[in-house]
TrEMBL record:
Domain of life: Eukaryota
SMART domains named in the record: TyrKc
Region (Disordered): 905-928
Top-tier EC class: transferase
Protein name as annotated: receptor protein-tyrosine kinase
Organism: Loxostege sticticalis (Beet webworm moth)
């Protein structure tokens, strides 16, 4: 080299051959090694898909742990430049296989260590929890992860216990925390379990607890059983002892355990001690004991966790006279620590030790069968394994073992689950595995039941009695039944008999015993029964009066000779309109039943007067006509469709009987078409070109819309399984808005499972509109209505032309029965001709349904067009019934010259004719 100055640039010259040069380094300090440079000029940035990493946290943790040495990075860079990034990555992964490392899962055990409450032996539970960790860590061959137990002192405080969970979220320990065991105290457990869904955190109860709220039941495992079962045991005991009164002293921690309907019926004096952290509430306990003694309650249940409060309750009971010698029976919790009868150092009781022992003599408790019946071998094995641990700590040991086994199976099947233990499917897998896999621990076999949505271990309860310093088994409660050992219970009353519950003696005592209550409540029940009997008598009297009124009403109908036909006029009571609310102002026409009037009716004060049509039953009507008249109203009250004339009310309790229906401005469709026939002729002359509003009246769109309205009405009736039997233009009414509505339901009948109605009564029928099967066999069905609808289409396109023009009714009958149909006019559209012919098929099963016809017409809004190439002459009426007068026959001819065969059953003809001789609805005209 020359003597000139030379500047050499390199990323790390001290790590390259340039280091042999005798040169002065410039710039940042040198690298400390091959993997660490204080001032790295080339930073390694890891880029990832955030959404994908959110779904796969295992990939995120792998990416975080990913690191490169300088040589590896240099080699990876060289390969990327030479072979491309993807090939370089594959080569690098193949050359650097992953090294498996065990992760870590934890279970937090919440213990009441630093608390003044004498509730649980925290040191025993802590020893049992740590023992589980040591034993599982010793099983190196089978473990899938490091199992750690983290013990936390909650001090029986709910805020403190919950704060542990929130702190775990902030310290990064939440991910490895698979479950929380405890807290042991009821109030703290309830709060932690209530909040568990927010953290997706399973909660394991190693002390008897009640189920959490429904939102959290899926995450709770009650390994010590459901605490409410103890209360059910006491309810069963009281039932067998015939006790009905109970005094209860509880606290916030045990409130949920008392939430049993069976026990609530026995409570007389109940006090709940507050959870304010102020220690033993001696004053409140003393007041409760006094109230209990004043109420003469002798069955006393101290549902408490704190042994200090139990001792205070016993002393208060001694002061109030609630002693076994006086007939008091004390029910105490089974989870009290050993030596609970001895006062703690510095504790001042309201009674002496001897008095305390005297009150406690003979008390009862309910203990889990596994603990009460634990064999000496199991006790010795537990004492050897966990020196100084109480038997109840073995339950925590088994619970943690059970959970660790479920974790092991989950991680073995899905190793990636260790990075996302709180995923809902992983939590469900753990709980399902723990409750469905057979597990036998030191406390026996774990059998689980699903009660109110929560998994609880099922175990029998043993009823024990304290006698002479030890407990004796006196009964066993299993599967909802309490079996007492005969003669095992001892009572310390003066006569040695079973004490009573202190209930008062009265004349209603048998009733009170039957109802499991006191005399006062029995008196109230008896009074309620007598009051109910009085109300029942009044109701019977009202029913009698109603039936009497009904009999008078039926007597009124008897005059109409309707009773023998089985009609139920009472079904029209809801539609009854007072006669004075119907005002008649004009006559619209005369029909088969009587006269049709126009007027107004007042149905509600706030609705004003409504325009209506009033149809009356004429004097001298036959029995069949009377029946058809009311039957029409019976049918119409069931219909509610925009294309069916609505029934608005009836007047049946005063003469004349009439029906009130909605008013249709343009009358029946037949007369509507006849009145506009000249417009149709003019329209045809203009070759279908509509030039004014009058032509619009008879346009194809208007005609098709009218036919569609009628088809929709028939479809509605078919859905309700009704057959109209008289579908014709004269029975279709036109509203002010040109909406066609089907009317005249005097012949309408309800069909049942056979979908047809067989007509057996002789009468005048509209033969020109009837189907062949109706004429031949008297059978009517929705298909026969479709045949009549085909004739209606003929009437519409011909603008009111009479079907079978020029033929008598007898000739029409013979022609249709022979298989012939109407001759269609020329000029029909092929689609319309096909539709009409499909309606006239001889086999009624092949005819289209009314709904199909309506759909076809809706798809072709201009299908119907005027076809006036038909004769206009009419035919004379057939013979009328003998009761008709010459005036009746003349009015019938004037009203409908086009429908002689159905005149006897038509009820919707509208005209401007003067009143008839038989009309009694309007006053007689005044004589000049």
């Amino acid at each position: 080299m020359t003597d000139r100055a030379l500047l050499v640039c390199d990323r790390a010259p001290e790590l390259s051959p340039l280091a042999r040069l005798q040169a002065t380094p410039l710039g940042p300090p040198p690298c400390l090694g091959t993997d660490e440079c204080p001032f790295e000029p080339q930073r390694l940035i890891k880029i990832a898909n955030v959404r994908a990493l959110a779904r796969y946290p295992s990939a995120l943790r792998t990416l975080i742990r990913l690191s490169f040495r300088a040589e590896e990075l240099a080699d990876l860079t060289t390969q990327a430049r030479k072979n491309g990034p993807e090939e370089a990555a594959r080569t690098f992964i193949a050359a650097h296989p992953s090294v498996a490392s065990l992760g870590e899962v934890r279970v937090a055990v919440l213990l009441p260590a630093s608390t003044d409450r004498e509730a649980y032996e925290a040191h025993s539970f802590e020893s049992a929890a740590l023992l589980v960790e040591r034993e599982i860590e010793a099983e190196r061959a089978s473990r899938a992860a490091h199992f750690k137990v983290e013990v936390f002192d909650d001090g029986c405080s709910a805020p403190r216990a919950y704060k542990y969970l929130t702190d775990a979220l902030g310290t990064g320990e939440y991910g490895a925390l698979s479950a929380v065991a405890g807290p042991a105290c009821g109030a703290a457990f309830a709060d932690v379990a209530r909040q568990s869904p927010a953290h997706a955190m399973p909660v394991l109860a190693y002390s008897p607890q009640a189920p959490p709220p429904p939102t959290a039941t899926g995450l709770a495992l009650l390994a010590a059983g459901d605490a409410r079962l103890h209360t059910e045991l006491w309810a069963s005991l009281m039932s067998q002892m015939h006790w009905h009164r109970l005094a209860v002293l509880s606290e916030t921690a045990t409130r949920a355990a008392l939430d049993v309907v069976r026990l609530r019926d026995y409570e007389v004096a109940h006090s709940e001690l507050p959870d304010d952290g102020s220690g033993v509430h001696e004053e409140l306990i003393s007041q409760w004991a006094k109230r209990t003694a004043e109420a003469n309650s002798r069955i006393v249940y101290a549902c408490l966790e704190d042994a200090r409060e139990v001792r205070a309750a016993l002393c208060a009971g001694h002061g109030a006279g609630l002693t076994p010698g006086a007939g008091a029976v004390w029910l105490l919790p089974a989870a009290l620590p050993a030596g609970w009868l001895r006062a703690a150092p510095g504790e001042r009781l309201a009674c002496s030790a001897a008095q305390l022992a005297a009150v406690a003599e003979g008390h009862l408790r309910a203990k889990p069968a596994w603990e009460a019946e634990w064999s000496p071998q199991a006790r010795d094995a537990w004492a050897t394994r966990c020196a100084g641990c109480v038997p109840r700590a073995a339950l925590l040991y088994d619970t943690l073992k059970l959970w660790a086994a479920a974790l092991g199976r989950l991680l073995k099947a899905n190793p990636a689950a260790i990075d996302d233990l709180h995923r809902p499917e992983h939590v469900r897998t753990l709980i399902d595995d723990a409750t469905s896999t057979e597990f036998i621990g030191l406390t026996g076999l774990f059998n689980w039941t699903l009660s109110d949505g929560v998994h609880a271990r099922t175990t029998p309860l043993v009823l024990q009695q304290w006698r002479n310093g030890s407990y004796e088994t006196v009964g066993r409660w299993e599967r909802g039944a309490l079996n007492l050992v005969p003669g095992a219970l001892r009572w310390f009353t003066s006569d040695g008999r079973v004490p009573d519950d202190g209930g008062e003696r009265c004349g209603l005592r048998p009733l009170a015993d039957l109802l499991r209550t006191d005399c006062r409540t029995a008196f109230i029940v008896l009074a309620a029964l007598l009051l109910s009997a009085l109300v029942g008598a009044l109701a019977a009297l009202a029913l009698y009066c109603r039936r009497r009124a009904d009999r008078e009403y039926r007597a009124h109908l008897e005059a109409l000779r309707l009773r023998t036909y089985g009609l139920k006029p009472g079904g029209l009571d809801r539609w009854e309109v007072p006669r004075e609310r119907v005002v008649i102002n004009r006559k619209l026409g005369t029909g088969a039943f009587g006269t049709v009037y126009g007027g107004h009716a007042l149905f509600a004060e706030d609705r004003g007067w409504t325009a209506v049509a009033v149809k009356t039953l004429k004097a001298g009507a036959t029995t069949e006509e009377k029946l058809d008249f009311l039957s029409e109203a019976e049918a119409m009250k069931r219909f509610d469709h925009k294309n069916v004339v609505r029934l608005l009310g009836v007047v049946t309790k005063t003469e004349p009987v009439c029906t009130v229906m909605e008013f249709m401005l343009y009358g029946d469709l037949k007369n509507y078409l006849l009145a506009r026939r000249h417009l149709a002729a003019a329209e045809v002359g203009l070759n279908g070109i509509s030039t004014d509003e009058a032509a619009e009246e008879v346009s194809p769109r208007r005609l098709t819309a009218m036919a569609l309205d009628a088809a929709r009405a028939l479809s509605y009736l078919a859905q309700l399984r009704y057959v109209h039997r008289d579908v014709a233009a004269r029975n279709c009414l036109v509203s002010a808005h040109r909406v066609v509505k089907l009317a005249d339901f005097g012949m309408t009948r309800l069909v049942f499972e056979n979908d047809y109605y067989r007509f057996s009564r002789k009468g005048m029928l509209p033969v020109r509109w009837m189907a062949p099967e109706s004429l031949a066999l008297g059978v009517f069905s929705p298909a026969s209505d479709v045949w009549s609808f085909g004739v209606l289409l003929y009437e519409i396109v011909t603008f009111g032309s009479l079907p079978f023009q020029g033929l008598s009714n007898s000739e029409v009958l013979a022609r249709v029965k022979a298989g012939h149909t109407l001759e269609l006019p020329t000029g029909l559209k092929p689609q319309l001709e096909g539709l009409i012919k499909s309606c006239w098929r001889q086999d009624y099963k092949t005819r289209p349904a009314a709904s199909e016809v309506a759909a076809f017409l809706a798809d072709s809004p201009r299908l119907l067009a005027p076809c006036l190439d038909v004769p206009l002459d009419s035919m004379p009426l057939d013979a009328d019934p003998p009761w008709r007068t010459a005036r009746d026959r003349a009015e019938a001819r004037w009203v409908s010259w086009a429908a002689p065969a159905s005149a006897a059953t038509d009820t919707t003809y509208l005209s401007d004719a003067p009143p008839g001789e038989g009309d009694a609805f309007l006053p007689e005209p005044a004589t000049p």
